[in-house]
């Protein structure tokens, strides 16, 4: 369980996150949606301790993340940021093997390599595992990064706009994988996402953020609601039910 | 800050500058000067004043143009290798033509400064990571590399102490007869005034300016040529004056905004005031000796630069 | 050819050059010449190794291949220090003559300076490493202004001594200092070994490193101190060779095409030794250049680097 209590964050005295309290249940996908500048990325970076909070408590399974040992935390929670511009000559397999660092500190055991192979297989990257990252397409590269996170084998996985710059096929593929990770391996996934239809179709819960505050949180079907979305984005959004899925029409 | 205060400051400092020195000349005796006093005034004091004003104004303007063109607040002749290239040019001209006339030196130095600045701009195109602070770092590195090339040749020809002495910014050697090269800057400044709007547009980027029907390449080339011309003339006559083109435009933009047309006059005037001020300090601190201008500007300038950086960090600019 | 093979070959070339340096044209009083050459060789290996090693670490921490520790302003500080000593005490003073005093003062001051700089950086929350470097660089320019000023004031005869200090030279290293440096570097390496495992992960960038459980600030701070000490030792022993690191580490990356630090570190150290021993050999024996090795290395390193930056189809 991830627990946030009265979390605040400000940059240069400008509040970005104000009094956010949240509880995220195990074994779910929770999407963070909201307009630009709502503080989604900041919030998810704080939960993954990439940036410090100003005030409040962030705990994972009851343990304060800023008190916990770095290495223990790295076995519990992993984050994938939106900019993954790695400037190295790195093959897919080498990248994925970095996911085992928290366990082996760079000296991978047989068991570690086993996990690496599993992750590569899970993301269907066997054919290209010895290719350099720079040779891959955007979607393939994103899958390689997710494979690394899978190799890291953490209970909680945080992703910051993983669908950025991906086409529809790659996006769907990634969202399906995330769903599978939750359903089959009972991971807990937190994801920042812009496309509300992806959020609506694939997540269990949605947190709607605006101006650094939580506007609404709850089950996906409760948040994908005409009134809520109007307040959130300041625009009229029509919601159609297609095959039991709520689809937002806003064009 | 109103422009008239700046003008007033220039006038006051100019007067002070005229009447400081070993030969005692007081403003009251201006109309009955002795032969010697007249000589000092005409041969040394007035040329010195003129070169200070031109150097201060033009180096600041050049900094402003370079910042507009590169869209980076911290690019200037000091942080883009222009100064170091001009310096290398002078050294080369001294090696090739043993008794180079000032004009020859000027031309060679201009060519080097121009080439150096173009190379830097080319490097900028190549760099993916365009962090505001990373760019001047690369520029300073680039300048160091150019300097090490100068060092190589200077060492070969036993010119190192020589080079330190003539490369250090210093107004005390300015006399009528050896500073006239400075006037080359003036047409450059006039051009800068005429093209101010275009520099601002070019600064928005190549696609943006093409969209507005501007010949991007031409404008950028003109801007860089002006920078190289002014820098080489200043380096040749006065020597290296660090940070000037960096701090003055930044201070002006803080209160005047970014549009070149509004900031040019302020930048020129403030640049002149700043150099006049530093020069006066350098002349009175260890009177009757002088501290060279590169040192006073270097000390005050680096302080201001660090302040600007901290300020930027604070306000997240 | 794989990077492992290339590393071995580089090692062999370095060793061969070292032997050549020691045994080439060995005539006269062998008992005198041999130890003298051996000491010089050790000095070269220490300097080259320390510079290559620290530059590699530095590039990993800063996540780029353009910056070298020279942007910390240490070289400039060293030059200023030497000039000040000559200016105040004169070239015949005890500080100048007794090289070990000079050596220790230089190292202590340079390390103190970097510590102050780091202190300043790590005080705030949003610590941007480029910010630190720019400040270091500005202070470097500031030191240079002072150095230039004093050098003009110094008597030309005294200046010759200052000039010697300005350029790295292996011809007049002192035996005691070489051994002292060996000990210092050995201690630093022992301290460093704890952090070795983090290097590969650090090269993925700060976010990834934190994600993978690296105590980022803690490790980077200590690695920067290691870099500062290594550079200070190398500079105080032979003098500043600003662009050697830039040259060898970039060539190593171009050659090896791997991210593994074990090979990059070894490769760059070997290359550095090759460049210095080979260069020294050429300067001493073949060309008898009217110049010192450091000037040539800076020249070649600088030009090569600009070439690298401008090379087509490559962005940094």
UniProtKB/TrEMBL annotation, chain A:
CDD domains given in the database record: ABC_Iron-Siderophores_B12_Hemin
Top-level lineage group: Bacteria
UniProt KW Cell cycle keyword: no
The ABC transporter domain, residue ranges: 2-236
Family matches, as Pfam families: ABC_tran
InterPro entries linked: AAA+_ATPase, ABC_transporter-like_ATP-bd, P-loop_NTPase, Siderophore_ABC-ATPase
Membrane topology, from the record: Peripheral membrane protein
GO molecular function terms attached to this record: ATP binding
Primary location class: membrane
Subcellular compartments: Cell membrane
Keyword DNA repair appears in the UniProt entry: no
PANTHER family per UniProt: IRON(3+)-HYDROXAMATE IMPORT ATP-BINDING PROTEIN FHUC, PETROBACTIN IMPORT ATP-BINDING PROTEIN YCLP
Name the UniProt record assigns to this protein: Iron ABC transporter ATP-binding protein
Organism: Oceanobacillus caeni
UniProtKB/TrEMBL annotation, chain B:
Family: Belongs to the binding-protein-dependent transport system permease family. FecCD subfamily.
Subcellular location: Cell membrane
Keyword Cell membrane applies: yes
Pfam families: FecCD (PF01032)
Keywords: Cell membrane, Membrane, Transmembrane, Transmembrane helix, Transport
Gene3D superfamilies: ABC transporter involved in vitamin B12 uptake, BtuC
Domain of life: Bacteria
Repeat as UniProt keyword: no
Alphabetical list of PANTHER family matching this protein: FERRIC ENTEROBACTIN TRANSPORT SYSTEM PERMEASE PROTEIN, PETROBACTIN IMPORT SYSTEM PERMEASE PROTEIN YCLN
Main localization of the protein described in the UniProt heading: membrane
Bilayer topology annotation: Multi-pass membrane protein
CDD domains given in the database record: TM_ABC_iron-siderophores_like
Protein name: Iron ABC transporter permease
TrEMBL record, chain C:
Descriptive protein name: Iron ABC transporter permease
This protein's record includes keyword Coiled coil: no
Keywords assigned: Cell membrane, Membrane, Transmembrane, Transmembrane helix, Transport
Topology class, membrane: Multi-pass membrane protein
SUPFAM superfamilies: ABC transporter involved in vitamin B12 uptake, BtuC (SSF81345)
Regions that span the bilayer: 6-26, 38-61, 67-89, 101-122, 128-146, 177-196, 223-249, 261-283, 289-310
Domain of life: Bacteria
Family: Belongs to the binding-protein-dependent transport system permease family. FecCD subfamily.
Localization per Swiss-Prot or TrEMBL: Cell membrane
CDD domains found in the cross-reference section: TM_ABC_iron-siderophores_like
Organism: Oceanobacillus caeni
PANTHER family registered for this protein in UniProt: FERRIC ENTEROBACTIN TRANSPORT SYSTEM PERMEASE PROTEIN (PTHR30472), PETROBACTIN IMPORT SYSTEM PERMEASE PROTEIN YCLO (PTHR30472:SF19)
InterPro entries hit by this protein: ABC_BtuC-like (IPR037294), ABC_transptr_permease_BtuC (IPR000522)
Taxonomic lineage from the root: Bacteria, Bacillati, Bacillota, Bacilli, Bacillales
Predominant cellular place of this UniProt entry's protein: membrane
């Amino acid at each position: 369980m991830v627990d946030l209590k009265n979390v605040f964050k400000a940059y240069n005295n400008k509040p970005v996150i104000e009094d956010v309290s949240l509880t995220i249940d195990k074994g779910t996908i929770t999407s963070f949606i909201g307009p630009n500048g709502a503080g989604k990325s900041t919030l998810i970076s704080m939960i993954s301790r990439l940036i410090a909070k100003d005030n409040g408590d962030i705990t994972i399974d009851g343990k304060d993340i800023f008190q916990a040992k770095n290495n223990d935390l790295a076995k519990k929670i992993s984050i994938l940021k939106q900019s993954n511009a790695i400037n190295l000559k790195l093959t897919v397999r080498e990248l994925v093997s970095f996911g085992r660092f928290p366990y082996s500190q760079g000296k991978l055991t047989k068991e570690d390599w086993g996990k690496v192979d599993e992750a590569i297989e899970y993301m269907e990257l066997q054919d290209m595992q010895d290719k350099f990252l720079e040779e891959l397409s955007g979607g393939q590269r994103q899958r390689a990064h997710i494979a690394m996170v899978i190799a890291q084998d953490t209970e909680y996985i945080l992703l910051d706009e993983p669908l950025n710059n991906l086409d529809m096929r790659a996006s769907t593929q990634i969202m399906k994988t995330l769903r599978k990770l939750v359903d089959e391996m009972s991971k807990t996934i937190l994801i920042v996402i812009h496309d509300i239809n992806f959020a609506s179709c694939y997540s269990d819960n949605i947190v709607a953020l605006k101006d650094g505050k939580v506007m609404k949180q709850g089950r996906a079907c409760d948040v994908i609601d005409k009134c809520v979305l109007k307040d959130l984005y300041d625009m009229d959004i029509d919601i159609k039910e297609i095959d039991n899925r709520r689809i937002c029409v806003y064009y | 800050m109103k422009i008239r205060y700046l003008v007033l400051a220039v006038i006051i400092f100019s007067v002070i500058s005229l009447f400081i020195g070993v030969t005692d000349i007081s403003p009251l005796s201006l109309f009955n000067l002795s032969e010697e006093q007249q000589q000092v005034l005409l041969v040394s004091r007035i040329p010195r004043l003129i070169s200070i004003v031109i150097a201060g104004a033009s180096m600041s303007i050049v900094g402003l143009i370079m910042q507009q063109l590169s869209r980076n607040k911290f690019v200037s002749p000091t942080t883009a290798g222009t100064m170091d290239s001009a310096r290398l040019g002078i050294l080369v001209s001294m090696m090739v033509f043993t008794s180079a006339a000032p004009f020859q030196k000027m031309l060679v130095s201009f060519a080097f400064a121009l080439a150096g600045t173009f190379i830097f701009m080319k490097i900028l195109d190549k760099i993916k990571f365009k962090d505001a602070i990373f760019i001047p770092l690369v520029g300073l590195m680039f300048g160091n590399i150019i300097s090490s090339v100068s060092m190589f040749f200077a060492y070969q020809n036993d010119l190192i102490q020589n080079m330190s002495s003539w490369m250090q910014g210093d107004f005390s050697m300015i006399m009528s007869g050896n500073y006239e090269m400075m006037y080359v800057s003036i047409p450059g400044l006039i051009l800068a005034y005429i093209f101010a709007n275009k520099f601002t547009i070019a600064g928005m980027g190549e696609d943006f300016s093409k969209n507005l029907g501007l010949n991007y390449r031409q404008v950028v080339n003109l801007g860089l040529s002006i920078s190289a011309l002014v820098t080489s003339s200043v380096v040749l006559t006065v020597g290296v004056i660090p940070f000037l083109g960096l701090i003055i435009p930044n201070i002006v933009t803080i209160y005047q905004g970014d549009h070149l047309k509004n900031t040019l006059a302020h930048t020129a005037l403030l640049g002149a005031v700043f150099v006049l001020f530093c020069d006066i300090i350098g002349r009175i601190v260890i009177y009757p000796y002088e501290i060279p201008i590169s040192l006073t500007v270097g000390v005050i300038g680096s302080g201001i630069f660090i302040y600007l950086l901290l300020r930027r960090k604070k306000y997240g600019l | 050819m794989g990077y492992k093979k290339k590393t071995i070959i580089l090692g062999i070339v370095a060793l061969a050059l070292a032997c050549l340096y020691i045994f080439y044209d060995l005539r006269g009083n062998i008992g005198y010449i041999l130890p003298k050459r051996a000491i010089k060789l050790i000095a070269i290996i220490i300097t080259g190794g320390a510079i290559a090693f620290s530059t590699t670490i530095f590039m990993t921490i800063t996540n780029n291949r353009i910056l070298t520790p020279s942007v910390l302003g240490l070289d400039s500080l060293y030059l200023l220090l030497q000039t000040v000593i000559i200016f105040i005490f004169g070239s015949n003073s005890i500080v100048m003559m007794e090289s070990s005093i000079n050596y220790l003062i230089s190292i202590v001051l340079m390390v103190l300076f970097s510590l102050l700089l780091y202190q300043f950086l790590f005080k705030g929350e949003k610590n941007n490493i480029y910010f630190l470097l720019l400040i270091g660089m500005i202070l470097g320019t500031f030191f240079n202004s002072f150095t230039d000023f004093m050098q003009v004031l110094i008597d030309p005869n005294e200046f010759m001594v200052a000039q010697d200090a300005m350029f790295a030279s292996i011809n007049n290293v002192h035996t005691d200092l070489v051994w002292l440096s060996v000990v210092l570097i050995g201690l630093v390496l022992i301290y460093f070994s704890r952090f070795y495992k983090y290097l590969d992960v650090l090269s993925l960038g700060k976010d990834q490193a934190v994600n993978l459980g690296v105590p980022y600030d803690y490790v980077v701070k200590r690695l920067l101190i290691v870099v500062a000490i290594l550079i200070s030792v190398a500079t105080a022993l032979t003098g500043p060779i600003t662009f050697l690191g830039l040259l060898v580490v970039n060539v190593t990356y171009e050659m090896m095409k791997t991210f593994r630090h074990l090979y990059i570190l070894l490769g760059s150290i070997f290359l550095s030794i090759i460049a210095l021993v080979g260069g020294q050999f050429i300067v001493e024996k073949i060309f008898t250049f009217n110049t010192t090795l450091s000037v040539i290395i800076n020249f070649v390193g600088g030009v090569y680097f600009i070439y690298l930056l401008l090379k087509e189809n490559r962005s940094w």
